[in-house]
Amino acid sequence: MSEDGVRLTPEQKKRQRARSIAIAAVLVALVVLFYVVTIVKMGPGAITNRPL
């Protein structure tokens, strides 16, 4: 039984990897942005005066 899937050229694989890395970088940047915005909205005491 042979596979009749899509075969990418090395150039297409390289571009697909670059796109994947770019998407991952954007997602990480959004997570960091949301985290920073949340901390800023909570105020400076949210980190230093929290109960343990």
How would you describe the overall organization of this protein?
The protein is mainly alpha-helical and 52 residues long. The protein is 71% helix and 0% strand. It has helices at 10-42, 45-48. The longest helix has 33 residues, at 10-42. The model has no long low-confidence stretch (mean pLDDT 87).
Summarize the entry for a quick read:
With 52 residues, the protein is an all-alpha fold. The chain contains two helices and no strands.
- Order of secondary-structure elements: HH
Q: Please give the largest β-sheet.
A: none
| Structure annotation, total helices | 2
What sort of overall outline do the alpha carbons produce when their principal axes are compared? rod-shaped
Q: What structural class do helix, strand and pairing data support?
A: mainly alpha
- Low-confidence segments, given as residue ranges, are none
- Report the β-strand fraction as a percent range: under 5%
Count of distinct strands? 0
Approximate helicity band = over 70%
Radius of gyration: 21 Å
The whole-number mean of residue pLDDT values reads: 87
Instruction: Give the CA-CA distance, first to last residue.
Output: 61 Å
Comma- or semicolon-separated keywords:
rod-shaped, mainly alpha, 71% helix, 2 helices, 52 residues
Mind sketching the topology for me?
Elements: H1 10-42, H2 45-48
